[in-house]
């Protein structure tokens, strides 16, 4: 596990940022020093601290305290400069303190045109590509190979150029092919990115004339003459599931490849013939729900969709069974959709 926190001011030498931790909350006997990174942005500057806690025991509760001898603890930051990121990190602290919190960037992490400044500095992800780029990475956990990528690199080449998207494609191509060859160890392959390839309305429906959103659907799926699309890569690599957000709602699609929908049989997710695309963007935001998108007739691939605020849980049981649930916060935790993904 890796602990991350931030302060608005640097520590005064010789103070050293550290994490004290242990299984007894009254006796935090272990200590790890933290690394320090500094970044600036339009509202000011912050110092980000990261400490790795090694050799933790499985199914064991650890207590920890972060800071320095002069009392700079995590998350007690002033929000007068509009530090929404600090508010968010405080809100999810109960989750991030107990589970690895793996993130990927979307359009709201662009930070103006400052190249994802807060995303790059606030969060720590595996860097296992040759470009030292935190926008795309992968990791194995149990029977699953997870691949995270940036839809923004693909969709916003008019801001960032095409080379970043090409770098990502080349690396992810290799990563997914290796994952496909490694099915004996990780039989499931799950990919994630911010924008979905398949949206909650038919491709013939224009999103109120929004050129950018219509363009992103096409460019992610099919690419252009300078940059390959991603759908063929997911199909060829036999990706099992693809999770996305961006749309402020939930949608489960039937297995789909190149527009062909596979929904025959009592359970189309049993030995699915194509990747399963899930849009899980219903956690809530100040703009409200995407009623425009969801008032359109559903696309042919849509199996279930909902505007209720909630979240998605995926339970990976073994090499043959996964169970996905959509939980409605509006309905006090009711499961409003669930499927079994099964492979013989």
From TrEMBL:
Pfam family, one: Metallophos_C
Organism the protein comes from: Acrobeloides nanus
Protein name per the record: Purple acid phosphatase
Keyword presence, Signal: yes
Family: Belongs to the metallophosphoesterase superfamily. Purple acid phosphatase family.
Domain Purple acid phosphatase N-terminal intervals: 1-70
Residue ranges constituting the Purple acid phosphatase C-terminal domain according to the UniProt record: 274-337
Domain Calcineurin-like phosphoesterase: 79-250
Sample GO molecular function, one term: acid phosphatase activity
Record keywords: Glycoprotein, Hydrolase, Signal
PANTHER family: PURPLE ACID PHOSPHATASE
EC number: 3.1.3.2
Chemical reaction(s) catalysed: a phosphate monoester + H2O = an alcohol + phosphate
InterPro entries per the UniProt record, alphabetical: Calcineurin-like_PHP, Metallo-depent_PP-like, MPP_PAP, PAPs_C, PAPs_N, Purple_acid_Pase-like_N
